[in-house]
């Protein structure tokens, strides 16, 4: 049973062509963003925090493909260095929300009855709190920064994840292989973690990719408001906020390039998530 599960998982990973052209292109965009997040600080051609007010707002010139921002800092270097915090924050949100949502989903699906009803009621309460509002409240109470905002968003996203994964867990719970494992004396944690959860891998991956896009937008908005990553640290949301006046003054490139990075990654993860959900629906 376990061997069959991992065989299915490997076939899922090794068939990118089935995602279609848009899904494959989205995967390439995400891969580039991940590479920038991992190696951006070392790939940046210049110090992303080194200002030179004499060249503020100067456009693209030789050696500086995207020009300079309002403090004369190299825009390309700040984009590459800012990819790390811009990608890490959503990743933390997704990891926490998926872990908590999967735990609640498995417990509700396995126990059912009163336990399922109590968990569902608790999730309904969490649905009442908008994610970005909860993040703003958290940064107000615990101080501005990426950590408080990421934890708050993960709590806000948890009920959405739990609801979707609960449906998949209930489906797997009713499968004959679960009853066979129970007859063989397999423990509940082993059945859930080694069999049910891997068999939900497509649904989990699809939900994680879609959730990543929402988390990136919300965290960028929080940084834009000055409650997330703090200047002068490079971050795409911070770059949009800092260079916003340049749009009205005729120097839109620094803000627009950061905004385009956010938009490109969000579109890519949403398209990829839709393709994965389509594959899950026809499985």
TrEMBL record:
<feature type="transmembrane region" description="Helical">
    <location>
        <begin position="251"/>
        <end position="273"/>
    </location>
</feature>
<comment type="similarity">
    <text>Belongs to the binding-protein-dependent transport system permease family.</text>
</comment>
<protein>
    <submittedName>
        <fullName>ABC transporter permease</fullName>
    </submittedName>
</protein>
<dbReference type="InterPro" id="IPR035906">
    <property type="entry name" value="MetI-like_sf"/>
</dbReference>
<keyword id="KW-0472">Membrane</keyword>
<dbReference type="GO" id="GO:0055085">
    <property type="term" value="P:transmembrane transport"/>
</dbReference>
<keyword id="KW-0813">Transport</keyword>
<dbReference type="Pfam" id="PF00528">
    <property type="entry name" value="BPD_transp_1"/>
</dbReference>
<feature type="transmembrane region" description="Helical">
    <location>
        <begin position="144"/>
        <end position="165"/>
    </location>
</feature>
<feature type="transmembrane region" description="Helical">
    <location>
        <begin position="210"/>
        <end position="231"/>
    </location>
</feature>
<feature type="transmembrane region" description="Helical">
    <location>
        <begin position="117"/>
        <end position="138"/>
    </location>
</feature>
<keyword id="KW-1133">Transmembrane helix</keyword>
<dbReference type="InterPro" id="IPR050366">
    <property type="entry name" value="BP-dependent_transpt_permease"/>
</dbReference>
<feature type="transmembrane region" description="Helical">
    <location>
        <begin position="24"/>
        <end position="44"/>
    </location>
</feature>
<keyword id="KW-1003">Cell membrane</keyword>
<dbReference type="GO" id="GO:0005886">
    <property type="term" value="C:plasma membrane"/>
</dbReference>
<dbReference type="InterPro" id="IPR025966">
    <property type="entry name" value="OppC_N"/>
</dbReference>
<feature type="transmembrane region" description="Helical">
    <location>
        <begin position="87"/>
        <end position="110"/>
    </location>
</feature>
<dbReference type="Pfam" id="PF12911">
    <property type="entry name" value="OppC_N"/>
</dbReference>
<keyword id="KW-0812">Transmembrane</keyword>
<dbReference type="InterPro" id="IPR000515">
    <property type="entry name" value="MetI-like"/>
</dbReference>
<feature type="domain" description="ABC transmembrane type-1">
    <location>
        <begin position="83"/>
        <end position="273"/>
    </location>
</feature>
């Amino acid at each position: 049973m376990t061997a069959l599960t991992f065989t299915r998982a490997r076939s899922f990973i090794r068939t990118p062509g089935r995602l279609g052209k848009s899904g494959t292109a989205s995967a390439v965009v995400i891969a580039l963003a991940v590479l920038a997040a991992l190696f951006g600080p070392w790939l940046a051609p210049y110090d992303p925090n080194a200002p030179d007010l004499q060249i503020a707002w100067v456009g693209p010139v030789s050696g500086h493909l995207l020009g300079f921002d309002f403090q004369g800092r190299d825009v390309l270097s700040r984009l590459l260095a800012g990819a790390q915090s811009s990608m890490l924050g959503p990743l933390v949100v997704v990891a926490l929300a998926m872990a908590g949502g999967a735990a609640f989903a498995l417990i509700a699906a396995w126990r059912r009855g009163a336990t399922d009803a109590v968990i569902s009621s608790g999730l309904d309460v969490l649905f009442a709190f908008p994610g970005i509002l909860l993040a703003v409240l958290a940064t107000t109470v615990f101080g501005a920064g990426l950590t408080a905002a990421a934890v708050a968003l993960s709590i806000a996203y948890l009920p959405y994840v739990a609801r979707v994964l609960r449906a998949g867990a209930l489906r797997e719970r009713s499968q004959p292989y679960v009853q066979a494992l129970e007859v063989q004396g397999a423990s509940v944690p082993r059945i859930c973690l080694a069999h049910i959860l891997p068999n939900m891998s497509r649904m989990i991956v699809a939900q994680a990719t879609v959730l990543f896009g929402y988390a990136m937008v919300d965290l960028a908005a929080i940084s834009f408001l000055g409650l997330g990553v703090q200047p002068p640290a490079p971050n795409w949301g911070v770059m949009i906020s800092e260079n916003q006046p340049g749009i009205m003054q005729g120097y839109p490139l620094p803000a627009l390039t950061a905004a385009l990075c956010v938009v490109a990654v969000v579109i890519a993860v949403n398209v990829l998530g839709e393709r994965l959900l389509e594959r899950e629906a026809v499985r």
